[in-house]
Amino acid sequence: MRFLETFHSAAFLDSLMSYASAFALGTLIGAERQYRQRTAGLRTNALVALGAAAFVDLAQRIAGDAEAVRVIAYVVSGIGFLGAGVIMKEGMNVRGLNTAATLWCSGAVGAAAGTDMAAEAALLTFFVIAGNTVLRPLVNAINRIPVRGATVEATYRVSLTSDAQHADRVRDLLVERLEGARYPVADVVLTPRGAQEVELVATLVSTAIDEAELDRATDALLAELGVRHATWEAQTQD
């Protein structure tokens, strides 16, 4: 039987230790994700770590360290596809990036365990869990800090609603006011809103704006003849 030829108790125990450590460490990472009710929870992270360990251990036993390194590269790319499945885009918001990154790290833990580097796998697990727990209060504290518009890169748009008969003049005033405030206009789009109104939307070239100055510009435009509504918005860039 081929099994009797390939089975060696020492190698079997070595694989057992690799699988057990990968499973245990992946479970620890997944437990934190499960507690947070994330898409990829306990079982997913445990299986990712276990699978990575199995592939790397198998390659190392069959062809040695050089082939194990090659398999690790394939594991990295394969988990990338798996991580893409948990990333969801909802409007302008993207969810699941942290979960995908955690899956990636679980694969690294499994790869380390598969190459018999259990201590390094345990150390990496510690840092992964720390990143998802210890850094959380720091992230919340940073998010509570008020952000000035001049420090944020975003796409800024100024919107006006004007009488149709004054649309051309209002368009010129819009460009003039914004460029006078040293905010060049990349484009102005005119959209009819019924028979009597036109909406003008100017997209600014600048990605960092003094919001107070932009407020003053829109207030000045609102006072012009034919302008019924004036506002601005910012869309933060990824």
Automatic annotation (TrEMBL):
The way this protein sits in the membrane is described as: Multi-pass membrane protein
Segments forming domain MgtC/SapB/SrpB/YhiD N-terminal? 21-139
Presence of keyword Cell inner membrane: yes
Q: Which residues cross the membrane?
A: 6-28, 71-88
Top-rank taxon, per record: Bacteria
The cross-references to Gene3D superfamilies, in alphabetical order and at most eight, read: 3.30.70.260
Q: Which key words tag this protein in UniProt?
A: Cell inner membrane, Cell membrane, Membrane, Transmembrane, Transmembrane helix
UniProt domain MgtC-like C-terminal: residue ranges: 156-232
Please state where this protein is localized: Cell inner membrane; Cell membrane
Q: What family does this belong to?
A: Belongs to the MgtC/SapB family.
Function of this protein? Virulence factor required for growth in low Mg(2+) medium and for intramacrophage survival. May be involved in regulating membrane potential by activating Na(+)/K(+)-ATPase.
Q: What is this protein called?
A: Protein MgtC
Q: Which organism is it from?
A: Sphingomonas morindae
